[in-house]
């Protein structure tokens, strides 16, 4: 990884609006560093047409979210986000990093069936899932300029992707599960040694420019009132642990993880053991409970396992029970 690429990745991890335009040059450098099977469209080649300006606006929304739609922006009608996180705090490098929950190659995967909803969802629905869960805010109308810009940027990142093609590197990765429950107590030691230097001993991150509250975080909080809520994908242990393993500490490359598999599971469990906002109405998620992820941190469940085992594992026994129920002639799954 070149020093120029590292600099770009650090900047893109969450920036203020004033710096967003300066980072456009970094995207071109990033495109040159990716393997040939991961072609990132170059935003520096965009024109000044209305369509291309919309794409650039979408990228700004990803990297400078609180400055544009955060809870403290001047226009109350555009306060869609309920916290001061940026989309790029989870979708690393403006959504272009492998196993950093990339936005690359997603446009052609929608509409798709959502087990959480129990029906088909659009790309706009998926964006709003992030708005109401990861950003702990409210839904954005499909016609809102901000929604159109975000969708335009996601479409742009799929420019070189054939319809029906699923690119490698999507999601947060997939490492082996533990045969035991993840251990938050052991994870606290790992957090102190590997995470606290950036996220703080209290895990509440580093604000970009105190006391101003609309420029987000230099380093995001991992828990607390300004973090993602318990309905977010990152609130699932498998997502958080894989994300940590393949991306953290800062500067980690997915091909050369710094934390062991065991350490990643335990430190993610420590992170998720802390309080965070609670999303109302989660009991309505997953109408067919047999399709609910085994590590969903909230009930109800189709099985008889405890909430703690769903949160921390081991997940093998839960998965076996669910598989057995699915094979039953009359599974008691839908509610």
UniProtKB/TrEMBL annotation:
Name of this protein: C-type cytochrome
This protein's record includes keyword Signal: yes
Organism listed in the record: Bosea rubneri
InterPro entries on file: Cyt_c-like_dom (IPR009056), Cyt_c-like_dom_sf (IPR036909), Cytochrome_c-type_DH (IPR051459)
Pfam assignment, any one: Cytochrom_C
Signal sequence interval, chain numbering: 1-31
Sorted UniProt keywords: Heme, Iron, Metal-binding, Signal
This protein's record includes keyword DNA-binding: no
Domain Cytochrome c: 182-275
